[in-house]
Amino acid sequence: MKTRLLHLFIALSLLSVSLSAAGQGKIYTRKVRLGDFPTRTTKVVLAGNSILELALREEIAVHWRISPYEFCSPEEYAGLRTSNDHYFLTLAHDEGIAFLILAKGGRDDERESLKKPFEVVRVPIANYEDPSGRELVLMGAFLDIIQAFVEDAMISDRTAYSGLSAANGSKLQGKTLYLDPDRADEACLQQEPDALVGITIAPSQISFESVCYKMLIAADTHELFYYDKARYKGPLDGRFTDAEIKRFERRGAEVRR
Fold this sequence. Notes:
The protein is of the alpha/beta class. The chain has two domains: 29-160; 165-256, no CATH class. Helices cover 36% and strands 25% of the residues. It contains eight helices and ten strands. The protein has helices at residues 2-24, 30-33, 51-63, 74-80, 134-153, 157-162, 181-190, 242-250, and strands spanning 41-45, 69-72, 86-94, 97-104, 118-127, 176-178, 195-201, 211-218, 224-231, 254-256. The strands form two sheets. The protein has a five-stranded mixed beta sheet. The chain has a five-stranded mixed beta sheet with strand order 9-8-7-6-10. Strand 8 (211-218) and strand 9 (224-231) form a beta hairpin. The chain is globular.
């Protein structure tokens, strides 16, 4: 059902693009708007020397490969964010969750969509108020997930519009999924072949808008195999459910709790 709704959403989005082109200047799909990414400089915005920022700085140097990049301060970002010549990678938080957000700069009042700002992708990385430390182990993986998404979105409007959940159809045959955090982190640090790392991220404080995130990430290649965003009403919602585990097993994974 979700797949059919996603396809319908994409079709309606593309139809809306074509119908509005005549009245609003030329309109471009997200895939086209990302076409200049490899030639634009990605500004990595760092505000200080927090543990997350230090980890991001270190892992960017190791993992970032699909565009030129430079570090910049929040003050520099404030002056550059309306420039369509740059993409920006920022650490941000919302409803108790810390994110890595990749966005393109621009001005909202631009007539042509190619020059408007837009968020490319955001990846949840930690409970903002009480991080577990796993985000430090997985920071390189999060960066690789962002880059893989951009590469796919540059050639596929389906990926560009569906976001990280586009990974949910991947087969898990031959994969071993570790749900225990310590064993999963060990697999990631050792880059174990055919191992999947299960990670859940939930806020400390619960509100009407609280959500949690669940991901399966390859320990060796950092490929994203599963992504889910769901309402969060308490700790039980921040775990992989029996129904999810059964779906992973049907897709071919050997699940180790």
